[in-house]
Amino acid sequence: RFARSSAWSAPPDANVLIYGESGTGKEMIAREIHNLSDRCDKPMIKINCLAIPRELFESEFFGHARGSFTGAVKNRIGYFQAADGGTLFLDEVGEIPIYLQSKLLRVLQEGEYQRVGEETVRKVNVRIISATNRNMHAEIQSGHGRRRHLRPFFPHRPFVPTSHLQPMQPIRLCEHRMKTLATLVVLGLLLAAAAPARAVEPAELAGRIQKKYATLTAFSAEFTQSIRNAASGDTERRSGSFLFKKPVLVRWETVKPEKELLVVGKDAVWDWFEEDREAYRYSVAEVISSKTMLRFLTGKANLTEDFLVVPGKPEEAGPGQAVLQLAPREPEPGLVMAKVWVDLATDMIARIYIQDFYANTNDLTLTGVVANPKLADTLFAFTPPKDAKVHDNAPAKERDLK
């Protein structure tokens, strides 16, 4: 909303300076301003001004001709030419020295520049969006900045307010990502941000989730399960492993001989029994035993409204771990409590414990590790026996998957 209001209030081609403290999302706002402008179909080139050596400033921004200096073995275009027709985002613009600011003045005022080692004047049409965490006005007054050089940066100057984080704010900020990244891996990342032992800024958390999900090939977990029959009082123990792979799909391979495979999709669970080779279909609600938990895992739940997330007991956590408890705010049959152990060094789930009372007592403990991609391909290439049967109430799409 802030980015949209900034984009709408700024003239279409006006240069913009975004001011705000580190971690407040200035680059995200710049990207949104670009996307909402008429230049959205053109490139947006991001430049970290702090990382450009002073002696290479002109070459980086304007380009150079072959032989113009030692090491210039070929012609090179600069940032302005690369962003022609689009947007040039200057991050940390306040770090540009005064004498170098003057070199940008001609481009900002006249829209023209010269490559290093050339006399040809080139035209360029670029919109400048810059960002800084420094008080530029105060620096102008103190002599560290020069008004006539910095004036082109200031036609529109949105200020990004600082967010004094509360433990649950990262979860509120990243809730929308659950709609597309609804896996237990993301659950662990979100809960890790709420741990008092590690304060995480929202922008950093969002970026880490996006990056980890993009590079994570698969997520496997070992489990032990105890199921007590409420009628007979008998207890059955199971152990095995399951695997997450994009899109959200789980295949569960048990170590017991009478069980072959359990496949978990968003809508159904299949179970193959050795004795009759018949596939029984269960709804996820019966397996998860909680509609609220199901809504959470599919990205439809509001974490702060539907769940109570509190830190676990410190003595329950291992070295470098945080323990958090997740429970529905409104009592319902099914989920009683979920505990998540998060490795603070890697932001990966170390263990998940889910306790529910849907029909039976069902204590489920999961230990997660990153799976070998070859193992993932092997599991997902599994073909069930030809004589395996499917209940008639299973949809055709699910039969094909099975």
Brief summary:
This protein is of the alpha+beta class and 402 residues long. The protein has helices at residues 2-9, 26-35, 57-62, 79-82, 98-110, 136-142, 147-150, 169-174, 184-194, 202-215, 284-288, 291-297, 303-306, 373-380, 396-401, and strands spanning 16-19, 44-48, 63-64, 76-77, 87-91, 112-113, 122-123, 127-132, 218-228, 235-245, 249-254, 259-264, 268-273, 278-283, 307-311, 321-328, 335-343, 348-357, 361-370, 389-390.
Structure description:
It is a single chain. The protein is an alpha+beta fold. The protein folds into two domains: 2-153, P-loop containing nucleotide triphosphate hydrolases (Rossmann fold, 3-Layer(aba) Sandwich); 169-401, outer membrane lipoprotein receptor (LolB), chain A (Clam), CATH 2.50.20. It has 15 helices and 20 strands. It has helices at 2-9, 26-35, 57-62, 79-82, 98-110, 136-142, 147-150, 169-174, 184-194, 202-215, 284-288, 291-297, 303-306, 373-380, 396-401, and strands spanning 16-19, 44-48, 63-64, 76-77, 87-91, 112-113, 122-123, 127-132, 218-228, 235-245, 249-254, 259-264, 268-273, 278-283, 307-311, 321-328, 335-343, 348-357, 361-370, 389-390. The chain has a twelve-stranded mixed β-sheet. A four-stranded parallel β-sheet has the order 1-8-5-2. A hairpin with an 8-residue loop joins strand 6 (112-113) and strand 7 (122-123). The longest helix has 14 residues, at 202-215. The radius of gyration is 28 Å and the shape is elongated. The two termini are 44 Å apart. Residues 164-227, 238-299 and 355-402 have low confidence and may be disordered. Keywords: ATP-binding, Nucleotide-binding, Signal. Residues 1-169 form the Sigma-54 factor interaction domain. InterPro entries: AAA+_ATPase (IPR003593), LolA/LolB/LppX (IPR029046), OM_lipoprot_carrier_LolA-like (IPR004564), P-loop_NTPase (IPR027417), Sigma_54_int (IPR002078), Sigma_54_int_dom_ATP-bd_1 (IPR025662), Sigma_54_int_dom_ATP-bd_2 (IPR025943). Pfam families: LolA, Sigma54_activat. GO terms for molecular function: ATP binding.
